[in-house]
Amino acid sequence: MDITEVPVSQDNKGKKKKNKKAKKKSVSQEGNGESVGVETKEEKMEKSEPAFPPTFSVSEIKNKQRRHLMFMKLKQEKRKQKMQIKKKKKKEREALGDKAPPKEVPKTIENQRVYDETTVDPEDEEIAFDEGTDEFSAYFNGLTNPKVLITTSDRPRGRTVRFCEQLATVIPNAHVYYRRGLALKRIIPQCVARNFTYLIVINEDRKVPNGLVLCHLPDGPTAHFKISSVRLRKEMKRRGKDPTEHSPEVILNNFTTRLGHSIGRQFAALFPQDPQFVGRQVATFHNQRDFVFFRFHRYIFKNEKKVGIQELGPRFTLKLRSLQKGTFDSKFGEYEWVLKRHEMDACRRKFQL
Amino acid sequence: MGDTSRLCSVWLGSETGILKGVSLARKQAFNFCNTSHLSRDQEVRALCWGDPAESELLVGSVDGTVKTFSVEKGAFTETRRCGDPADGCFAGLAALGGSSGSALVTCADCGTLRVWREDGSSEPAAELDAGKNVCRMRPSPVHPHKVATGGKENGLKIWDLERPEKPVFAAKNLRDDWLDLRRPQWVRDMAFIPDSDKVVTCTGYHQVHVFDPSTPQRRPVLEVEYGEYPLTALSLPAAGNAVVVGNTHGQIAVLDLRKGLVRGALKGLAGGVRALQCHPSQPLVASCGLDRFLRIHSLEDRKPQHKVYLKSRLNCVLLASRALEAEGGVAGATGGAQDVKEEDDEDDLWETMERVEETPKRKPTEEDEGIEEEEEELQKKSKKKRKKGKD
């Protein structure tokens, strides 16, 4: 004779789970025996959604369309709340006026970067001496002018050839030569004899350039990069006319560590030391998160504060793979820095350049 | 200057000509420079202890001069001209004690091995030719007048300085390979194994060889290959049967000499290894190279223990025989008095602050904190054990 009252709500709930339309009915019986969490949820939802137990998540609904709908509703609710909070904050800010606290800066990987102890201090004498007497000292003291030899790996295909030609227009005093299957170690003494200061070798894989070896010539360091995202001139939108023969200015951004300094100097030594401002051309090497982005622009000052820029020339991204002391000798050379593949996995905020 | 140099337990020579001393207990590096202006001629190529008491360092530079640095005074005391820069860089430097007074043995890249007397005469007492392109010369720790030399296309030769005409042992090249071609040889570094006559060498063709002069076999007794890049440095740890080698890619490995297997690798180095040295008593190995860092790894668990950034590329490293983390004896007493007062003030400061668990930072009271943290952990562990017992 003991009659245990089965709360009606449970049955309703079961039914409502199955029937979408029934959910929209206001359910007043749900007040009994439900946990607090669900009730608050009910309060929030104006359409009086059926109170699900708190462990229920949208992913448990097996029907794809209903699941999608529930998820969209959830998202809309969240967005609404976010907008409300934002509006409230904005009102508070305006109300406070001058006394408002300064705007919070969002955290990015760049501003969370782990402090690198090899960051170069501009007043450090030892590093200044080291840089003053290294392999680039002849260039930075004005004794030599850059002369660049650009070549590729053997039998290059169309895209690489066009890339080399465009690079040669961007870098003054650059000459493109066909590789003819010659060994680099034999080319290097001949280049030195003919007063070349740089050797650039563009490596090609499946008709697309994918590697760059930059070798400073008398006995300088050799840097090996991986190239990605090459955009040739005709693929660029809103580009200007072809670059002229004037020497461009060079901008090197964000090469802060000791390794970054060495690479930055290598890039700087590609271009002649005195830029011709008449040409209004600028080459930028921007380092961000260990990727070096190369862009080539022409600028014009409309008035003192406004500048217009047009992008000309090829655009590519480089990632340093190794820096070797001495001229190109991949087997027996000594490496100053080598990229170890899973280095970034340990800490995402630590960079090398 | 003297007190800073007495604190240093690790000495390094750099490419800019600066002698660097590192004190690991204090986590500080000091630069000791001879002249007021630096020049690339002074690039340090060889470093060794001047005497068994380790109170003097001999520094060999590219221009052929050998300078004596006194650890007590903290300054360079003497300079000697031991060869021309045309001879090439120093391949090795050694100081011989002995009845004849302290003599200096130098070996240049062109192969001339010279013994110099203490009286500063400009002529060497003895001279011998060790072939061309000598990469390294090392003295034997057991027999002070035996030295080993080796280089590119110049096999291992062991010389007795009292009989300089012929080497005591000259190694034969390996057998021709399966195409009957002559195998190239390039000895980069060698070491004498203590308690026996054997010599270990590492080559530029990523091989490690063990030679035994007491046997009639002149070819290597054991051959081990490691990696694909030239091995540039070698060192023997205090516990025997192993050897630590480093190559141009920054890979350092511990190899077992009993069977010729790789026991493990030491990670961290990003540039080519220029010098390795194992501590004579503790299981630690110091490595330095082109990436401008001094790294100290522990040999037991192969984990890095210390990493110090020194701003120039490093060529040679030398360890003091005493425990690396202990401060120098004399300096500890005199400098310790000042330090104790500072430490008291700092201790009060630290006690007022909350204790936060963190990785060791550069503080002079690091050792005290480390000990206190360990004690706390032990107490926590004992509490946990008690709780489990109750259950």
TrEMBL record, chain A:
Pfam families according to UniProt: Brix
* Location in or out of the cell: Nucleus, Nucleolus
Q: Give the PROSITE patterns listed for this entry.
A: BRIX
**SMART domains membership:** Brix (SM00879)
Q: According to the lineage, what is the superkingdom?
A: Eukaryota
Q: What is the lineage of its organism?
A: Eukaryota, Metazoa, Chordata, Craniata, Vertebrata
SUPFAM superfamilies on file: Class II aaRS ABD-related
Supply the name of the protein. Ribosome production factor 1
Q: Which residue ranges have biased composition labelled Basic and acidic residues? A: 39-49, 92-107
Presence of the UniProt keyword Oxidoreductase in the record: no
| Organism of derivation | Perca flavescens (American yellow perch)
Automatic annotation (TrEMBL), chain B:
User: InterPro entries given for it?
Assistant: WD40/YVTN_repeat-like_dom_sf (IPR015943), WD40_repeat_dom_sf (IPR036322), WD40_rpt (IPR001680), WDR74/Nsa1 (IPR037379)
What is the native source organism of this protein? Perca fluviatilis
* Lineage, highest ranks first: Eukaryota, Metazoa, Chordata, Craniata, Vertebrata
Question: Which proteins does it associate with, and in what oligomeric form?
Answer: Isoform 1 interacts (through WDR repeats) with NVL; the interaction is independent of RNA or pre-60S ribosome particles. Isoform 2 does not interact with NVL. Interacts with MTREX; the interaction dissociation in a late stage of rRNA synthesis is required for appropriate maturation of pre-60S particles and depends on the ATPase activity of NVL.
Name of the protein in question = WD repeat-containing protein 74
User: Where's it found, cell-wise?
Assistant: Nucleus, Nucleolus
So which domain of life are we looking at?
Eukaryota
Composition-biased stretches (Acidic residues): 341-351, 366-377
Principal localization? nucleus
Show the segment(s) annotated as Disordered.
Answer: 330-391
Keywords, A to Z, come to:
Methylation, Nucleus, Phosphoprotein, Repeat, WD repeat
Biased amino acid composition, Basic and acidic residues: 352-365
Tell me, which GO biological process terms does this entry list? ribosomal large subunit biogenesis; RNA metabolic process
One GO cellular component term of this record is:
nucleolus
Q: CDD domains given for it?
A: WDR74
Q: Where is the composition biased (Basic residues)?
A: 381-391
Which SUPFAM superfamilies does this chain map to? WD40 repeat-like (SSF50978)
